[in-house]
UniProtKB/TrEMBL annotation:
This is Mitochondrial ribosomal protein subunit S2. CDD domains: RPS2 (cd01425). It comes from the Eukaryota. Keywords: Coiled coil, Ribonucleoprotein, Ribosomal protein. One of its GO terms (cellular component) is mitochondrial small ribosomal subunit. One of its GO terms (biological process) is translation.
Amino acid sequence: MSATAQTAVEAKPFETIEDWTNFQLKRADYQALVDHFTQYGSTQTRENTFQPHHSLHKPPRPSELTLSALLASGAHFGHSESLMNPNFMPYAYGTRAGITIIDLDHTLPLLRRAANVVRGVAAKGGTIVFIGTRTDLRAVVRKAAERVGQRAYHVGEKWLPGTLTNKLVMFGPEVSKKEQVIPDLVILLNPIPNIHAIRECAIEHVPTIGIVDSNVDPRIVMYPIPANDESTRTAELVAGVLSIAGREGVALYEEELARKAARAKEVQRRAQRAREHIEDPM
């Protein structure tokens, strides 16, 4: 009997008490076999082992990030040795087969520093913009902005020149005066194609965080993260870590707002009691 025919037979509804009893016995035998052989098998599951989608949907916290995670994402691969920017030399470990190898011992602390910046900006109620204009980065920046919350935005298409420096034309005079159109922090996953955004941030004094590869001058952004800017997995990991830090900052901001509201309510209650005592001293 084939597996399909056997499944069809087992799927038939129970007609007698004996059918139900046989089903219970068969299930008990199967569970006994599972319990017996589990101790001799592997304990790896999809939850406790690395999966390619984890960097996008389950990024680690900045304090939990490891060198092995960066290595697994391919963050150490740079460009050709002949294309290395002279200012990138402090972040280069060496070369292999003509390819620059990025020193992840620099990448890890700089990424954690950037995470602290994101957390601090979010904790003060600042707005954050994630920019990734490659096709494979659109889902990354969208997921990162959604993880941070309402104070975060993303740009997955082309950056329109003049978005910050010509905001009166881009947004209109009324919106520019009433709304905050200048962000407090900009995170770039591919800085070179978005050099116009970097220049506008510099003009408007907006701090920037960016993934810089070996062919990029790290000085173009305020907080560089030396890593492979052509790897989707590296971008997912970096954006995920920074968005987790942003979410922590938003939680701190909401706690501070709750404390301020509680203090204001307490002051108002005490003032009310004082007024009642003055009006009715007896």
